[in-house]
Amino acid sequence: MTDREYATPFTMFHAASLLGQRSRIEKFKQAIQKVVVKGDYVVDIGTGSGVLAILAAKAGAGRVTAIEVNAESLRYAKEAAQLNEVEQLIEFVEGNFTEFKPRERADVVICEMLSSMMLVEQQVPASLYASREILKPNGTLLPQGVKVFVVPVECPEIWERFQFDNIRFPRVVQTATHEATKDLADLQVLVTFDLTNLKMDNSVDRRLRFEMVENGTIHGLVGVFEAKLYKNIKLEMSDGWKQLFIPLAQPIEVSVGDTFATRIYYQPGKFDSLIVEEE
Prior knowledge:
By secondary structure, this protein is of the alpha+beta class. It has two domains: 12-112, 3-Layer(aba) Sandwich (Rossmann fold), CATH 3.40.50.150; 146-278, Hnrnp arginine n-methyltransferase1, CATH 2.70.160. The protein is 20% helix and 41% strand. The chain has helices spanning 12-17, 22-35, 51-58, 71-83, 123-134, 156-159; strands at 41-45, 63-68, 90-94, 106-111, 135-142, 145-154, 163-164, 167-168, 174-176, 182-183, 188-194, 204-211, 216-230, 233-236, 243-254, 259-267, 270-278. Strands 6, 9, 10, 11, 13, 14 and 15 form a seven-stranded antiparallel sheet that branches. A hairpin with a 2-residue loop joins strand 16 and strand 17. The longest helix is centred in the N-terminal third of the chain and has 14 residues, at 22-35. The two termini are 24 Å apart.
């Protein structure tokens, strides 16, 4: 593993498209209104369209710092702040979150970089950095925790994607809709992250054994999550996320009652660290 810098530099078009995921934004609005006290200093990591920074400003924050690695998204967020007349409250910072050194510690840090297994996006490393370098000791981090589940699935739609006529391509992880996959066993918990109390090493290394409840062909594993945003406010896949499909080296025919054992290893936020082994 190299010391490469990992980031998910979504474009402005992608950031704007996420504004259509209203249930996700509504839940963040509820949480922000519960935790932001008038005059608070709030930091929003990975601001994208700026929607969460704007919500924090409208909830009474005295000052908001919105951090974004993508320059086009940052310009879009600045325009949105002006449209909503909160530009005087929000400082926009271009760069990776690891480059941000606050002049003072924040009362609230918002970091929405969730992805299906916390593999591709920077939720876990960003939350660790926020807790250690940005947030006050008694401050509030949103979201606060996440639980990752996996299940073996049948998914011919994606499996066949990597071959056209006699041309073959390396199979890599892909996002998938729920409709494109068929669960062949029951979901199992892979890992639970307490985002408010992370270790320096948050590597995932688990061995799981599944008993098949459906006949079919295992084409790969699917990862999904559930996150604790604040108290009883939870984020779920239906709030706007797709599953992560991890293809196997070869498909496996299974029947009800068969078992499938696997080892899954990865470092959250480092997408090329993933290792999946059949056992």
